[in-house]
Amino acid sequence: MKRTYFTLLIASVTAILIAQAPAGYYDSANGKADTQLRLALNSIIYNHTDVGYNGLWAVYATSDVQNGKVLDIYSNCDFTFSSGNQCGNYTTVCDCYNREHSVPQSWFGGASPMYSDAFHLYPTDGRVNGQRSNYPYGECSGGTSLGVKALGRLGGSTFTGYSGTVFEPDDQYKGDLARTYFYMATCYANQNFISGEGATVFVYNSSSNPKANLTAYAINLFLKWSRNDPVSQKEIDRNNAIYAAQKNRNPFIDHPELAEYIWGNKVGYVWNVSSQTDDIEAIDVRIIYNRQSSSIQIICEQTFDSFAIINLSGQTVESGTITGDFIPINQLTDGLYFVVLNSNLGRITQKLLVY
Q: Which of 102, 134, 34, 85 is nearest to 238 (CA)?
């Protein structure tokens, strides 16, 4: 007999989805705020190993492969990974996979080390990669999808601040790409980006501001995506694998709250590297899943802003903002999930068993 709901106290599982940076890695950014915080992070992560464009395949073997299969953010194709350039010619989705510059190389003139920085280069289906082309990321209504195996669609922007053509990625990877762009604007704060349709949507160059910063459109879009799609185990594993190769990390995976301190609702506040999770780990939280009403209930004195439900494969199956104690969701299939709750104090993760 299936039970209607299952509850579990938070205390035993709060650390499950916390990335592990080396001790002291972010100490020089401690006590900084706003632009000075971003530039301090730049000093930490900029001087990294350039693995080279061909060296990306060796990185992908540990960063973007699970059980021998490629973790492709642009398709549900069943690609078996092997080291080497997999894409020659392609005509349809699932023909082959290649290396996608999520920040198009034309925006920075193909300059190194951006050209081969694994943090923004993903193995993706060649056909969908071609559809995305150099279009900025965004949100669209309707749009063109390349079929049931393809993830993402191309269409006219519906997000305030830009009205051109955009590529909207799948919901489960929007947070990943937001944190990728936060990383790029931070790691390459002194890099000149080329003016043009795509680049000027996301970055600007000004002698009175640190270069390669984000535009208002990009800030609003990516803060929304990062809040609605919190860090997954896939991102944490990828961060650790790339660190082993490049010797630098994505701070916005290790400390997702950094985006709020630099661009979001914590601008003006000083960031303290040692205190971001202390308070929240002591909070007692219960989560109740109700199968009959297809909802979850959060019982806690702390107020949370957003949530994500992640399966054991690291995929986000549900996410969104929190406006009350009861949150409607799609019915979950039996299995073990992780529920991630986000607040200004940080985030907590709880197991949820459905059976």
A: 102
Distance (Å, whole) CA 350 – CA 355: 16
Three-class DSSP category at 226 = helix
CA neighbor of 122 nearest in space, from 138, 143, 109, 137? 137
Q: What is the mean pLDDT of residues 190-215?
A: 77
- Predicted local distance difference test score (pLDDT) of residue 209: 63
With vertex at residue 307, the alpha carbon angle to CA 304 and CA 312, rounded to the nearest 5 degrees, is 140
Distance from C-alpha of 244 to C-alpha of 250, rounded to nearest angstrom: 12
Contacts of 71 (CB under 8 A, 6+ apart): 64, 65, 123, 234
pLDDT in tens, 104-159: 999 999 999 999 999 999 999 999 999 999 999 999 999 999 999 999 999 999 99
Strand locations in the chain, DSSP E?
Answer: 65-66, 69-70, 97-101, 121-125, 153-156, 165-168, 203-204, 213-214, 286-290, 295-299, 306-311, 316-321, 326-328, 335-343, 346-354
CATH topology of domain 10-15+277-354: Immunoglobulin-like (2.60.40)
Q: How far is CA 10 from CA 132, 177, 331, 347, in A?
A: 40, 28, 22, 12
List the chain domain ranges: 10-15+277-354, 32-262
Look up the pTM and report it: 0.77
